[in-house]
């Protein structure tokens, strides 16, 4: 037997002894893989728990923010309603004021026309009154002149 044969025989013996235990080695390798996967899952679970905790905290903050925004929205809706009512009231008031202004303007135009007519009539009457006064003064002057002539005539006849 050569040294090669001896080595091969030794290896065969070793293989026969270790062959029944090869399942144990394979199981150890599998167990090692499972342990490593278990550790990875533990790390992932811890990460998921932290993420879940953060998500719950964020959810609480979001709920608080939603409530706050709802209150603010309600307040803004009330303000919009109040301002809309105010705008409607002011629009109606503006409409009535415009109607009043139109009526006043119509009345001013009417009174202006009446004033112009009365001014024309006053001017006409003043002219007519002036003419009448002038005619009356002329008549009174004429009567006074006649009376003076008559008095002068009478005086001149009486002194004679």
TrEMBL record:
Entry's family note: Belongs to the ATG16 family.
Domain Autophagy-related protein intervals: 13-148
Organism: Wickerhamomyces ciferrii (strain ATCC 14091 / BCRC 22168 / CBS 111 / JCM 3599 / NBRC 0793 / NRRL Y-1031 F-60-10)
UniProt entry keywords in alphabetical sequence: Autophagy, Coiled coil
GO terms for biological process, alphabetical: autophagy
Sections of the chain in a coiled coil: 28-157
One Pfam family it belongs to: ATG16
Domain of life (superkingdom): Eukaryota
Name of protein: Laminin subunit alpha-2
């Amino acid at each position: 037997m050569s040294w090669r044969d001896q080595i091969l025989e030794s290896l065969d013996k070793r293989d026969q002894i270790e062959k029944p235990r090869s399942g144990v080695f394979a199981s150890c390798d599998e167990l090692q893989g499972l342990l490593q996967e278990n550790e990875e899952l533990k790390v992932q679970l811890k990460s998921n728990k932290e993420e879940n905790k953060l998500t719950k905290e964020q959810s609480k903050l979001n709920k608080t923010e939603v409530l706050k925004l709802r209150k603010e929205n309600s307040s803004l809706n009330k303000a919009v309603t109040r301002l809309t009512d105010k705008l409607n009231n002011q629009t109606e008031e503006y409409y009535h004021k415009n109607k009043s202004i139109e009526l006043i303007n119509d009345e001013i135009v009417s009174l202006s026309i009446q004033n112009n007519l009365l001014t024309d009539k006053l001017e006409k009457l003043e002219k007519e009154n002036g003419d009448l006064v002038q005619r009356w003064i002329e008549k009174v002057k004429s009567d006074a002149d006649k009376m003076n002539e008559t008095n002068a005539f009478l005086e001149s006849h009486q002194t004679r």
